[in-house]
Amino acid sequence: MDIEGREKAENKVLLLYFMNRVRIPVSNMQLTRIMLENRYMNYFLLQQGIHEMQQDNLIITETRENIDYYTPSPDGLKMLEMFIDLIPLGIRTRLDKNIDAIRSVMRLETSVVAEFTLENEDEYEVKCKILEDFKPLIDIRLSVGSREDARSICNNWKTHAKEIYPEVIAVLLGKS
After folding, report:
1. How many domains does the chain have?
2. Which helix (H) or strand (E) holds 2?
3. pLDDT digits over 73-108, tens only?
């Protein structure tokens, strides 16, 4: 196997290894952030690997809320089992050591959602959600008059959603 082919195979096996170890569906954005922050591979090799694995049915792609999430397919898991030794032991050890922290951050990223869209010249729609296993626990939509207000609401929701949710439930149940 030439050096370029070996690097591509190693990258695919590393992606499968990560997806398998994290045990939750991984978005392209999350995968990109983790692989680039840890310098496991560059952006272009990552995207090429994902695309080729989709073509070869090594990963399953599920789209939720216009975001693609990846998990290894049965064929991908077989490939991982056969070629796991392509991943350097140091990289596997480092990933295994940090996988619980990575999983926690990923769950938080996918469980608290805040976004806004321009509806017309002077109105923005803000969507704030908390998801558990990709099902909404709470889904709030607001109309606000400025981009600054929309951005502020999104930032505050991301920071305080876990505190706001129990308060809203308590008020709605008449227990506050």
Report:
1. 2
2. none
3. 999 999 999 999 999 999 999 999 999 888 877 877
Domain harbouring 57, CATH code: 1.10.10.10
Global pTM value: 0.69
Residue 104 within a domain: no
pLDDT at 132: 74
Range of the domain at 167: 111-172
Q: What pLDDT does residue 111 have?
A: 81
76 and 151 in a single domain? The answer is: no
Burial 8-45 (b: 16+ CB within 10 A, else e): bebbbbbbbbbbebbeebbbeebbbebbeeeebbeeeb
C-alpha distances in Å from residue 133, one per residue of 61, 70, 105, 107:
16, 15, 14, 9
Is 45 within a domain? Answer: yes
